[in-house]
Write a structure and sequence with these properties.
The complex is a heterodimer of chains A (514) and B (335). In chain A, 34% of the residues lie in helices and 25% in strands. By secondary structure, chain A is of the alpha/beta class. Chain A folds into 4 domains: 162 residues, P-loop containing nucleotide triphosphate hydrolases (Rossmann fold); 65 residues, no CATH class; 174 residues, Rossmann fold (3-Layer(aba) Sandwich), CATH 3.40.50.300; 68 residues, no CATH class. In chain A, the strands form 6 sheets. A 6-stranded mixed beta sheet of chain A has the order 6-9-10-3-11-12, sandwiched between helices. In chain A, a hairpin with a 2-residue loop joins strand 4 and strand 5. The two termini of chain A are 43 Å apart. The chains are: A alpha/beta (514), B mainly alpha (335). Chains A and B meet through strand 8, helix 5 and helix 6 of A and helix 10 and helix 11 of B.
Chain lengths: 514, 335
Amino acid sequence: MNNFFLEISGLSKSYGKVQALAEVSLRLIAGEVHALMGENGAGKSTFIKCLSGAVCPDAGRILVDGSPLSPGNLHEAEKAGIVALHQESSAFPHLDAVDNLFVGRELRRFGIFQNRPQMRQETEKLLNRLGEKIDLRTPLEELSLAQRQMIGIARALSHKSRLLILDEPTASLSERETQTLFRIIRQLQSEGIAILYVSHRMEEVFALSSQVTVLRDGRLVETRPTSELTRDELTRLMIGRELLQEAQRKTQRAPGEIRLEVNGLTQKGRFRDISFTLHAEEIVGLAGLVGAGRSEVATAIFGIERATSGTVKVNGVALPSGSVHAAIKCGMAFVPEDRQRQGLVLPLSVADNLNLTKVGAMSRGKFRSAKKERGFAEKAMQKLNIKTASSRSPVKTLSGGNQQKVSLGKWLSTSPSILLLDEPTRGVDVGAKAEIYRTLRQFAQEGMATLVISSDLPELLLLCDRILVMCEGKIAGELSRERATEETILALALPSHKENHREKDTAELTGVSD
Amino acid sequence: MTLSPELIERKNWSQRLLREREISVFVLLIFTLVVVGAINPAFLAVGNLRDLLMQSVPTIIVACGLTLVIVLGEIDISMGSMMGLLATVMGLLTSPSRVGLSVGVGVVSMLALGAGLGLLNGLLVTVGRMPSIIVTLAMLTIFQGVNLTLMNGQWITDLPPGLRFFGIGTFLGIPISLWTALVVVILSVLLARETPLGRRIYAAGSNPDAARLAGISANRLKIFAFTLTGFLTAVATLVSVPRLSVIESGIGSGFELLVVTCVVVGGTRISGGRGAIIGSVLAALLLGLVRPMLIFLHLGVSATYWEKAVQGVFILAAVLADQLSRRSQGKAESA
């Protein structure tokens, strides 16, 4: 019965007020592939980080063979054989395979020199075990993503690992490379190494794992044998939420005239053939998993990135590709995902940030007019209910919700006719969320066309008149307000083998994340 | 999945030349020697080449340390007036008319002071969490101020013969300074390529987050690199300053930029992670060649004024080569 070599109990972690992980427990048997699933933000990556010692949990214990690991200690976790393979972050791009495997714990000779021949031999042995041949002198940055991943796995193996944590390992692999990875996973499994496999891809989970653990909102939903589950059941476990706010949805309005028309928009390697229209007075959602290419579509429409082909028309007039200036002139506005880095100038005051988009409108002749600026800013602050001591406080002193309101207000005060929003309420508390929704509604009623990218499905269901769902760089479908539910969205968003265009598409989708 | 032979073939000559700066700088160096030598054979006389080498010795020695600093993503521009200050201290300590210590004690104190000042740079950057360009700019200015105060407007003219030996002495017919540079270069290359310490410096410069995950403390490595650069500046001072019989307060001025130039031209990426000591050394030789080349080509009296401009062009060419190689690499990846 008790053949669990690893027992995790009550693992909790919070960042500020956000509880990222709450009392999650998990047990692992040697040689099992255990899948870890959950929506974006369900707490998977926090869990992995706590387990591998990269992050120190607030509470909980990790027992290896019955003896506890000290929390947040990478070295100890490594020694105990727990190794996490993150997407790419743990590699050294300028160093070759041998250095990547051994840096930090080099084999030595004569005390001070490293024993390069022996390290090279060990590297070769490990790569042979994986059935890989990689030139050992090539810097990693010149190798393919799959090869880099193999080197990551080899590094994990060189730790005599007992648990290998793979985080979305196939995200950037082609079909053939994925098969190779599966072969290696099965081989490691037969050698008694347990694997914690984090993936969105249902078919991979069903193909590989014997147990599935589902997390939702930082909590453990259930651990069950994979064989007892169906795809639908698993989807339900991942979503689970009651749709409390369903009632708040308003009745369908007839949409206004076409404001934005996107036709066959393609950006090589990121997304392809995106076509849709956006009408006045309409809020359209863009759903999809992280990496589906949603943000890339928005940045291409706004002209931050150049599209490979396809057109974007505003009020019937085609926009030149890759010109933010033209987009703004046509009345388009874009509120980016990462407000701290892309949306705001943190050290500047609330007023300065709100006025960034229209410095020209507030000048007096060639000079700034402080009075006009303050007037504009205070009006915007009132309208959006931004809570701050003064319009002169630096934006970085504001709470997340108020920061987001500034980021939004900066564009709304230009009275855009088209608004693109990327994750408008990420890291924002419920109260501010409601105010942001109210503001968006109000502007929509006044005629603005809005496109909302969000990973928060209830948010999309609450806010949107229609929802477009993207999957692996393409629009997988469109759902009307009536047909849209979390299940129907997720069914479209999850990559499926049935419509098997994957092999080529994923190969081209390397390195995408949004 | 593995790199196919054709793909390896495709990384053709021009790409390698762009990517591996040691090779291109070396080719350029030989090319210059051959061309100038063909036009004026006196250029290749043994005596002249030895003089050329000796001119480059301080740059070569300090570039070895600075390469590691830049590989770590930091920079040091304090070496110029640090050299001036160290020269003054060395002169004051050993000159019979001043403190008059024995040469041995004076030299060891000066070397220790160099390492100490480098350590101070390192601590301010890491523990003080200040950007290295600002810290070392401040130190550049401070060292200069202290140096001027110590010199008090005078020159030190009575250097003891024991000290002058480091500048003009020879061993097996080869100047001490050349021996020193040779030893420093060999040890530095070994350090960078063959010791765990060196590999960790490259790792921490390549991806600091990953280095942390691998249990490597970037701060300790940075302190080491700054200290090493300070120490090597002292070594460079020891073997170059006593060539002349006089120490004045202007020694070392502009030296820091010459060393930075050599490291950049030698292929070290200013953002860290990549760079070879041998590249910096070859670049130091190449840049040291510019002035004599202008003289030996008999381009007229004012030709040597072009030295700085030519060096500047080398910097731009180096950065351009970086851009081109990165662009061609980007293309190769998306194809």
